[in-house]
Design a protein that fits this description.
The protein has 431 residues and is of the alpha+beta class. The protein folds into 2 domains: 101 residues, Orthogonal Bundle (Helix Hairpins); 308 residues, BirA Bifunctional Protein, domain 2 (2-Layer Sandwich), CATH 3.30.930.10. Helix content is 40%, strand content 20%. It is built from 13 helices and 17 strands. The protein has an 8-stranded mixed beta sheet with strand order 1-11-12-13-15-10-9-4. Strands 5-7-6 form a 3-stranded antiparallel beta sheet. Helix 3 packs antiparallel against helix 5, helix 6 packs across helix 13 and helix 8 crosses helix 13. The longest helix has 34 residues. The model has no long low-confidence stretch (mean pLDDT 91).
């Protein structure tokens, strides 16, 4: 969420940032609400002072009141002042509620080096790693390979749960678990992330804090009661960033780095007709997620570090990928800067997103009131929150199947997975 005081300091810069996000000017309307709130508060304070004076007169002795004038008139004026204060406070609260609602609907401000653009065609290539495989045969899609392995079952998943679900058996069930364990081991043992096992249900305020609510409710699966709704998490980011809501951390505790492997659930309300086959766009999938809290001065370096952690998984798996800097119109709602990692899919002959690593600045911590305190200084500050997939497990599996496939439908997995697959790196197609 944005700080209205910062918007008031430089409305032109804020409007320019919203323009880059494809939105109309917002600053003057927001500032008008802010000024109305401040004016109401000033009037309340003035009327309150007058009310206090009248109340003091009423508390005086009867003889004093008589000498001073009509006691009934003083009491009537005091009642009117009290009602005026009530009315002014309501106006202030209603105005504040409207302003906050409008602020909640606005995305984060892109930082200076984010390229301007309306869609992915404006994204900037940062680097590439690895070369796509040069097959002497027509590459099969991962879902076709999964069926040949008799280990990827969409029809039965649809029978029990509907479209966009999958059942994995045998070798692929084990591969999903192996990939997650491999990713967790790298991030915890080598990069110092703290592993967390999280709930997959979150309350409204948690998704509000991460920026998923109220704007993106249609993309979520909602359960629970009307009085206390809960949501299936779309990403572990929501829970990991919410761990420190309404807390005051100490600066020396930062950075905090968390990693979690969890199921994720997305309604994909805006994805009708997209990726209807395979593992790319499911309602339920698993993902290893990284989240960091750090000080504002170190968040840029933390962003690069986090992106490097996600890249390391792709490098060790030998998967060709590229890093894209997203443009202002293609970034997520809460991000101020995002790198997308895109892995090569041999059957599609194109790069597809497998990870987004975002620096959200103070946008999320302000929404969830997560703060930190510097030793020896008064007041508190908002830490910067970052998140990144490292990686989406299903998409990683899809990339492995397509890039390591053999002409007969067999898949030979990279050696780095040997300890996690029990030495069985060859996935054999059923005859």
């Amino acid at each position: 969420m944005h700080d209205i005081k910062e918007i008031a300091k430089d409305p032109t810069a804020f409007d320019e940032a919203m323009r880059k996000r494809g939105l109309p000017q917002q600053a003057q309307d927001l500032i008008a609400y802010y000024k109305k709130i401040k004016a109401s508060i000033s009037v309340v304070e003035m009327v309150q002072a007058e009310h206090n004076q009248r109340s003091e007169k009423i508390s005086q002795t009867p003889s004093d009141i008589k000498d001073d004038g009509n006691k009934a008139m003083v009491i009537k004026a005091a009642k009117e002042a009290k009602q005026q204060i009530t009315n002014l406070k309501k106006i202030s609260e209603d105005t504040k509620s409207t302003m906050l609602r409008k602020l909640l609907e606005l995305p984060n401000v892109p930082v200076a080096d984010v390229p301007e653009g309306s869609d992915e065609s404006f994204n900037k290539l940062i680097r590439k790693d690895g070369s796509p495989p040069d097959f002497r045969f027509k590459a099969r899609s991962h879902d076709e390979i999964g069926e040949m392995l008799d280990a990827m079952d969409f029809p039965r998943a649809a029978k029990v749960s509907g479209a966009r679900f999958v059942v994995l058996y045998d070798q692929l069930a084990r591969l999903e678990r192996a990939l997650a364990n491999f990713m967790l081991d790298v991030h915890t043992r080598e990069y110092g992330y703290r592993e967390v096992q999280i709930p997959v249900l979150a309350e409204w305020h948690t998704l509000y804090g991460s920026g998923h609510l109220p704007k993106f409710e249609e993309d979520l699966f909602k359960i629970g009661t009307k009085e206390r709704p809960r949501y299936l998490i779309p990403t572990a980011e929501t829970v990991l960033t919410g761990l420190h809501a309404n807390e005051i951390l100490q600066e020396e505790e930062l950075p905090l780095r968390y990693v979690a492997w969890s199921s994720c659930f997305r309604a994909e309300a805006g994805a009708a007709g997209k990726d209807t086959r395979g593992l790319i766009r499911l309602h339920q999938f698993s993902k290893v997620e990284l989240v960091s809290y750090t000080t504002p001065g170190k968040s840029k370096d933390e962003h690069e570090r986090m992106t490097g952690c996600a890249e390391e998984i792709l490098k060790r798996l030998g998967l060709p990928y590229r890093v894209m800097l997203l443009c202002s119109g293609d970034m997520g709602f809460s991000a101020e800067k995002t790198y997308d990692l895109e892995v090569w899919l041999a059957a599609q002959k194109k790069y597809r997103e497998i990870s987004s690593c975002s620096n959200c600045g103070a946008f999320q911590s302000r929404r969830m009131n997560a703060r930190y305190k510097r030793k020896g200084q008064k007041g508190t500050l908002f830490p910067h929150a970052l998140n990144g997939s490292a990686l989406a497990v299903g998409r990683t599996m899809a990339a492995l199947l397509e890039n390591y496939q053999q002409s007969d439908g067999t898949v030979v997995l990279p050696a780095v997975l040997d300890p996690y697959m029990g030495g069985d790196l060859t996935l054999l197609a059923k005859s």
